[in-house]
Design a protein that fits this description.
Largest sheet: 6 strands, mixed
Strand content: 15-25%
Helix content: 25-40%
Order of helices and strands: EHHEEHHEEEEEEEEEEEEEH
Number of helices: 5
Number of domains: 2
Shape: globular
Strand order of the largest sheet: 5-7-10-13-15-16
Length: 219
């Protein structure tokens, strides 16, 4: 993978951001090993995103000055620290840093898939739903619970700006939510386009294939 910073420089960059934005007395630092492991997860995801800004000369690209890239990286880093149970306060600070820098509320314990995109995700809140690969989330989206029940998403999902999916929703594969759609406690079948506001949302046959047309993958 092509990176705009070396491993050492990226480690210094992240630690300097933490010290600048959250200068408390806890001087826990992110290690080079954690940065390396997080970049491996980014590489796996970005190598499957055949789109502008994610590829350069046929190779996946991570640009530390691309907010969409950095938002995904900070999630993976905080989640990795959380899962290793090495430093919950550091994981919390990285979650908070992501929120400060990119306006996205994506807690480190949320089980995001191996392949997903955040597209200028300012104002987006992502809760502990069940996700699968080839997920795209735009700005001002909300994925949340109604009485502690979260949605479940299939593979190949796009939530365009302003979409909210709340509660006991089982969403099939290859589903696109149009801008400003609201869905509450409603199931959606495969290959569907959803638009409008609950309870009067409208559902159409989806003529697009998310994996092919959004991610550029044929197989």
């Amino acid at each position: 993978m092509i990176c705009t910073l070396t491993l050492i420089d990226l480690t210094h960059f992240i630690n300097n951001l933490l010290d600048s934005y959250l200068p408390d007395r806890n001087k826990s630092l992110v290690s080079i090993a954690l940065i390396k492991d997080s970049l491996e997860k980014v590489e796996y995801s970005f190598s499957r995103i055949k789109r502008k800004y994610y590829q350069e000369n046929g190779m996946p690209l991570f640009d530390h000055l691309n907010g969409d890239h950095m938002a995904v990286f900070l999630y993976y880093l905080s989640n990795l620290i959380y899962r290793n149970a090495s430093n919950s306060q550091l994981a919390t600070k990285l979650f908070y840093l992501n929120k400060i820098m990119h306006g996205v509320d994506l807690f480190y314990s949320v089980p995001m898939p191996d392949v997903f995109m955040l597209v200028h995700p300012v104002g987006t809140v992502i809760g502990k739903a069940n996700f699968n690969n080839y997920l795209v989330v735009y700005q001002n989206c909300t994925i949340g619970a109604d009485t502690d029940v979260y949605p479940s998403f299939g593979e190949g999902i796009v939530l365009y700006s302003g979409t909210s999916v709340i509660g006991n929703c089982i969403i099939g594969n290859n589903v696109i939510f149009g801008a400003n759609t609201l869905l509450i406690d409603t199931d959606v079948s495969d290959n569907t386009l959803v638009v409008g506001q609950y309870p009067a949302q409208r559902i159409f046959q989806n003529q697009r294939h998310v994996r092919e047309q959004i991610f550029g993958l044929v197989n």
